[in-house]
Design a protein that fits this description.
Number of domains: 1
Strand content: 25-35%
Length: about 100
C-alpha cells in the first residue's frame, strides 16, 4: 500500500472552481483501489507551528499499488477536468510514502 499526502494551495477566489474539480477527482480514487483517508481544511488556530505556507487543504490518500496510483492519474474522465485544477490550484506539494 502506498500513501499520498497532498498539500494544496489554491488561488484566492477560486474555491468554487477547486471544489468542482474535487467533485470529479475524489470519486475517481475508488475506481483505482484507492481511498481518501483524510481531507482536511485547516484553520489558522489548528496549526501548532509552521515553517512553510499554510495549505488550503490537506489530503491523505491510500492506493493498493503504485500502478493503481499511476492509473488514477491517467484517468481519462479526470483528465477532461484538469483545466479546473489548473485554474484554481496555485501550487501543490505531493508526498509519497509507505506505512512503517
Amino acid at each position: 500500500m502506498i500513501f499520498i499526502t497532498q498539500l494544496i494551495y489554491i488561488i484566492d477566489g477560486q474555491e468554487k472552481t477547486f471544489n468542482e474539480f474535487e467533485n470529479i477527482a475524489i470519486p475517481a480514487i475508488s475506481k483505482y483501489n484507492g481511498r481518501l483517508l483524510l481531507r482536511v481544511r485547516p484553520t489558522e488556530n489548528t496549526f501548532i507551528g509552521a515553517h512553510i505556507e499554510k495549505p488550503y487543504e490537506i489530503h491523505l490518500v491510500a492506493f493498493e499499488t503504485q500502478q493503481d496510483f499511476d492509473s488514477f492519474r491517467q484517468d481519462e474522465e479526470r483528465k477532461k477536468f484538469l483545466h479546473l485544477r489548473d485554474q484554481s490550484v496555485r501550487m501543490s506539494i505531493v508526498i509519497q510514502g509507505t506505512k512503517l
